[in-house]
Request: fold
Amino acid sequence: MGNVAVGLSQGDFSVIMKLLNENLTEGQPPPGVVSKPGADSPEVKEQPVKKGTASSVSAAQGETKAITAPKIPATTDQSGSKLKFGFKLDSVSASLFSGDTEMTKEVCEHDRAKCLGKFELAGFLVEGEMMNDNSMKVKVILKDTSLEDMRPPKQNGITSTIERSPWSRMIQRSKSGSHSGSASPNMIDVSFIQAKNQDKNVDVKINSIHVCVCTEFLMSIADFFVKGMPPAPKEPPQLPSAKKGVKKAPVKEKPKLAPPPESEMSITVSLGRPDIILIEDPSSYDSNAIILETEMMFKMRVTPDATTMGGSIKDLQLYSCVFNKRDSTKTQILPPCEINLHSNAPYGQGQHMDIQMTDMILSISPATIRTLTAISSGLAPAQETEEGSKSSAVPDNLWAVKTLAETNFWFLNFTVPEAEDAAAVELEASGEQPVEEEEVTHGEQGPAHKDVLLLAAPVIVVKLEGGIGKRTVPLLIVETGFQGEVRDWSSELHVESTVNLEVAYYNEALAVWEPVLEPVHENNKRHKWEIAMQVAQNNDVLLIDEDDVDLPIQPPKMSITVKSEDILNTTITKTCLDVLSNLGKAFNDAYNLVEPTVKPGEVMSPYLIQNDTGLDLTIKLDNEFETEDTLETSELVNGTVNGQNGMPPQADSGRVHLPAGKALPVFGRRHNALVRKASIIKATQEGDEKKILFQIDQFGVTREVTINRAEKKLFEINKKTEYPAGDKWAVLVSVEASYGRKTISLRSLVQVHNHMSQAVEVFYKKGEKDLVSVGRADPGKSLPLPLPALYTYTSEIYFKPVSDRYGICTNGVNWRTASESGLFPLTCATKDGHASFYMNVNPTPEKVLFEDSSEMNRECLTLNLHPTVILHNLLPFSLSCLLEDATEEVHLDRGENYALYNASVNKSSMEFKMKYRGLQWTGRRQIQADVPELSIWTFEATNEKGEKKHLDLGLHNKQGSGTLDISLYSPYWMINKTGMPLAYRGNDAEVTLEHPADYKDIVLFSFKAKSLFSKKKDNKEKNGKGTVSEKKTKVKEMKQAGKASLKIRDSEWSDKFSLDVVGSSGTVQCKTKTGSYECGVRIDMTSSGLSKIVTFTPFYMLVNTTETTVSCKEPVDSALWLDVAPGECLPFWPQQTGKEMKLKAKVKLSDEETGPFLINTAHTTLLKLDNEYGGLDVECHVSESAMVTTIGPYKHGCASVLLVNQAENLSISFSQSGVGKTHSLGGKQAVLYTWEDALGKRELVWSCGEKKDERNDLTKDGCGDVFYLPDCKLFWVSFLDGPQRVLLFTEDMAVVGLVQKEVEYTFERIDQEINLSLRGVGLSLVNNINQTEVAFMGITSSGIIWEEKKKRYKALNLKTLVILEAAYQKYLIELAAGKSPSSRVTLENKMEVDFEEMQMYKPHKRGIRRSFVEGVWVQYKTSPHQLQLHAKINRLQFDNQLAGAVFPTVLSPLPPPKSVAADSVPKPFTEVSLMLSKHEHSHMTQIKYFKVLIQEMALKVDQGFLNAIISLFSADVPISREQETKQFEEDWKQTNLPLVEIVGVSLSHGKKNFYDHLHFSPIKVHLSFSLQGGGEDGDKPTAIQANVLNVFLQSVGVVLTDVQDVVFKLGYFERNHSFYNNSQLSSEMTSHYVGQAIKQMYVLVLGLDVLGNPFGLLRGLTEGVGDLFYEPYQGAIQGPEEFAEGLALGVRSLFGHAVGGAAGAASRITGTLGKGIAVLTFDDDYQKKRRQQLNKRPANAREGFARGGKGLIMGVFDGVTGIVRKPMEGAKQEGVGGFFKGMGKGLVGVVTRPTSGVIDFASTSLDGIKRIVDLSDEIRRLRPPRRFHKDLIIRPYIHTEAEGYAILQETEKGRYVDDDYVAHAVVTKDGKNVLVVTDKRIVFASKGELLGQWNCEFTYTWVDLKEPPRVISKGIEVVLKDKEKKKFLFGGSSSKKEIHITDKKTAEWIVEKIHEQMERGR
Reply:
């Protein structure tokens, strides 16, 4: 047969499919109807096939060549041929066209421009022969297959039709043939051989396949078929039979085995290496591609005895490349690996399979992600416009009564078959599914098929790479292993598997991997962290619980348990944070397809040797290096290609000549073999060393350098200076690592770094006069000084700005003495007599290594060039500055900064000019260094009348490293968004500042100078040059602590309020003659911390979210209509006064008005309009500083209720409570109803028949029944249909049941349950730069608990638990002693238990168990319409790991008082319970129950810890000047936001969810704060490192003081039966907690006044403080399961199955504030007394008690529980730390708690002290701080090592801190005597009894020992040299010393360690 070509358009395909569909479905019953047997269905009879049909068809088709064998007479010979056949087809192709075929001609041709693609099969051949003995041979061949992209090329593609595009062919034969060697001319070869005994052999070979995947083309082909399919016919709604409530358990019949096969069959399939290519851009040859290569082999053999299978995937590999440069750009993603499969299934038994994988190493780089993203972007469908963005049209006759026939409610489409049993209906409604037990057969099954699959992937390594272009290095590595066993997947699936995991990051500076997820260290062995997973499929069995037969608990269909017994310890270091942020940015850029800076083809060398010595060098490389003689790596000059071809010819032994100033790229030698070590961390910590030798040609000096890590080493050479005589020259070798490239710079000791924007030329003095230029230091760059420039007669360096205007500086900098002389000012005079050029040189020395020693005992020097003064304009408008002697003015825009190069500190004066509020302001001032950091600068201006005006601005002077930063700012920016004229005044009542309503710019405000005088301080600057006297400076210090008053229009002045409480908001009231004005105030801070932004907003605002103008008016006579345009937010100033503020609204285009509604109470109401608009949806949002009323259009669901009466002949009358008008709803009718009186009580009253006045508030779901006649019952059900509340009345109980079931889903069986439990989690925060562990966070499991089983296991209370555990321990001890005690015991609390059966008999018979709570436990359950989440964190503790910490524990839960704890169940620190339903008939999610409970906690922070945390997380680089300007611009933008955005009202309506019950518990925190910190100066106050915070505190004039146990109480957050979208809810919740916290911080800690109530109570709420707070330990929380059961009981009570069942919702606990909580009063007396307390001045000696600080006193007394007496002397001068000098370091931060009623921070009075006494368990650190090593590498944490290291650090106050810890042994059982071994000595340390310090009893260095110690029977014997004989405690002298160690193994181990160190010491 020749060529067959088919052309098919999308329209043709659609017609064909439609015809097929109609023909195939003809005669079949419509969907949903089951035809019964015996119906008149046409029977299809089998038609006999007429002979000759096939031949006639084939004849009609054309040239078919039938190869038929000649007829052979039948013989008895069995081997002869019976039949030969063959079929050949040259090609068959199908072309696909988009669109439809135009039927305009008789023969239609397709438009070539619409062609999508062409699929072709070429060379198809079938040949076969059948023998007389029934043996057979068949061969099938397919030569080629191709799929071609025929779409017209794009504009930028290749336009030729012959070469359409490099990727036009998606599938074709590979031109290179098969890679496997035996090239086959065919793509597919199939051979089938059947022997005469019926044994069969099938062999399939697939070769030379080339698949090029272009996702965009494949999507368009898929689109062709998907859109061409005819639409499926709409099915009528399912009519569920009530009988589905009675589900029969499936009958398990005895399985019948199929007879075994009689013959054998073997199948072999082989796939020769295909080319599978994923393309990024199909229009380019230079496109990135990902290529998959592999070989596959599969064999299967079926015999009568068994079926065996074997398969392998060999050389599976992935790599990325540029397609047309495959070999040169290949980057391996997955190196070759193998997967092998073996399977054996004996006849009649299950399969046994084994899948093994070799090591898989996956390297993922940003380039790979970028390519994959670009490829997958073709898969993403075009984004459709969002539905519902335009408001839907309001239906006609919205409020009219409609008959049910006109509606189509899903909840009325249920039809229940009539002849069903009523019981079944009830069961359906109640959710029970009885099992008909007699049909279930047990134990009669045939042999169970035990399927087993073993899966092993011992090593999977994932490397995340980062880097530039091709040069990537692994930065994060995840090594894991997996082993699993899967059983019985054909019947009841069961999976067990374990995964082990280790994660590390690459520290480039040290060239090692350091742990992120640490290995587990147990019994001196280390293994990876392990987690186990189990999956179990459950049978359909109902568990009937004994206690409550009514509520069967359905087991989930599948349960997955993930559990780890190991503690998950992670370590995050400062370097790790940098690595993660770099990786994150690189991967994010790649994902967002940001163009990479380096093109994929470029190759960067991993090593670059830079010669900056100024002399020619010769470099000799060792064998680990190779250089490449290519253009890319040719000689470089200062890092750029020189243009010479190739590298200089190399000498024989790898020597390379490297001239001065040039660089040499070098490559490491490639290792082909993949080297794998046991552990990534261990392997890399062995290091990778390479060596180079450098020789200075001029002097013939050779030195060897080892390149391992980023470090600086100094090498002396044999050239000496003449002066100072004998000083050796030195070369510094600096190794820097960045993204896998190590730059090795050879340079001198000194380099110049230019921090200015002006380039500077550098000179040195050759001889006595001649100045020789070294080069230029460009802005932001470094210039290494050549060796000859340093070693000169004067050793001086000179500088000159690169400008013709200035000369060389008059005096040079002597680099030898520079580091001692400090900051060095330089002056470069001008040639034209104008102002000189000034700069400062700040020399910074740095310690470096000397040659190959490990000691940092040499220095190199950087000369930093800084401008003398930088001016920062922090005002919100531009200004100009003129320096005296300067020629031109400097113009600074807002936020800009400028370096004043012509300014000399303490000499130059400057003049500022600026335009502000229509006047020209001028200020003149001398630049001075020794002034207060914040000072006042008064500007002057003259107005039109000639009057002088004054403006006080602030000046911030900050001496940085070499530069004086001067910032001009205003303390307050006032922004008026109220639409009213405002006026402000400060403490000075005479001066007022007007702020007109129409003035949109910022008004600057400051408190007048009169109130700013404060005591002058002596401010010593860092340069130590003393202070400038008061007379000279004449500078007033700026202290902006004051209160302002506000006036609105013609009102009186408001009460004073603070402008400094940043981050808080509130309201200010201004009284008028008739009432009062009220406005909102919000205070923010600029990024500099110097200015506060005070925004005044109207208290009442109106927002219009409709598409038409809305008018509003107050219901008072004098009021006018106020028009609000669409999308507009307007201020609203009401005329009315009183508690209720009312408003009416209408659409401007119509006359119909709404009823009045409130605008000062939170509500959402639809106000009815009988016109085309339907109504207006009013939502009033109440916050602390505003009442925002949003008016929106009618939307589906915003009406109060949809009333549906399904009863036939029953009328229902209804009305709103308190409203006289009654409405009637007839039978089979429905109507929408909304509240008629928006001000009235929101309750629906309905009556029916004899039943009158039933009430429903329409907020929650529910159902019930009433008798409207003595014997007639009416059921009602209230539920949500999407956002619309529906109240349905029906006489049919089944409808209620079915609706309830559809809505509640309470009875729905769980599909999947996931349980995750982790024993514990640890997070260690380490600053590896300064080698300190900053913090450790641990989540730990509980101690032993006992649980009893009611429905599920619940913990017993603490009192019972203690009694039970004591009895159980006694029982165990007796058993261990060989006695046989009675297992049944009666306990002291009259409880009777049996420990053998684990049963409780009294007071109730229940199962009990002994257990513990995991650190983290999460349970997640899903079913089609439900999601349940229950999570617990048992105990969270956050420790301060710094040495000398004031508070070793930062955060820990506080247990409740013992009296309470005894009777309560142990509670986890945090518990979350969530249950939500997803409705089938709407997209709305209903959150049934969401509760979070957090227990009381203590937060104790000291200043040292804060600084350590800031330094760990902050970047080392300070904020650049460009960033500073950007941040200022952001601040300025915030001041220009429209009112809508300031208020935070979203104009778009996001998807809303319905919250039935949402409750987040109150948060109670005990805060302690100390100004002291860790480190050597632990008893001195520490400065705050956060600059902005410092500035803020200074500007407010608040001094931070120590704070002890201040109690923060944040009230709970609760919402019931409300709609919220996610952003609304999160913003409300955040402002609820954060607002309270900020205000309480100001009041309780800083002593400032705040706007409003610090407990954040909203106005208009009737509850008092007590109602919004309860003690967290009183909080109750239900699991989602229990909550669901409660609901189920409520539903079932309707059907009489449960009497008086609980309605389900947990009753809210309304806790009261405990006694002793002080009510905060904001009078001046209170403030004064509070400040007194904060400054630690007790009124008398009796008040001087300090609370015993738990965990603060650092082991001074173990578990201090009493009250420590506090000395009174010197409180003011020395700070708290001074009181206890001599009592041990760290007793600090203790605040007096006066007892005679002076003050009592809102926590507890003296009862609080007693409470602390009650608690015996002192909270200690979870683990000692980690041990650090001399080589700076962070290693996995080992507990014993850390303990010994800590003891060594503390012994004799850190005397041996420079020793390297090796090992230690505890000598006595109490742990108070320890023998420590270091690299230099042994130390015997003992712990002091009184203060707990570690003292050294004796110590010997290795030199002191005569011989190595040995093990004796008592422990260890140490023999000393004669001179070391010492008198010991018991008199006499001895040369031997015995150390008693009872455990012989410990003694042997410690002696071995000492031997090792002594050997090394020699």
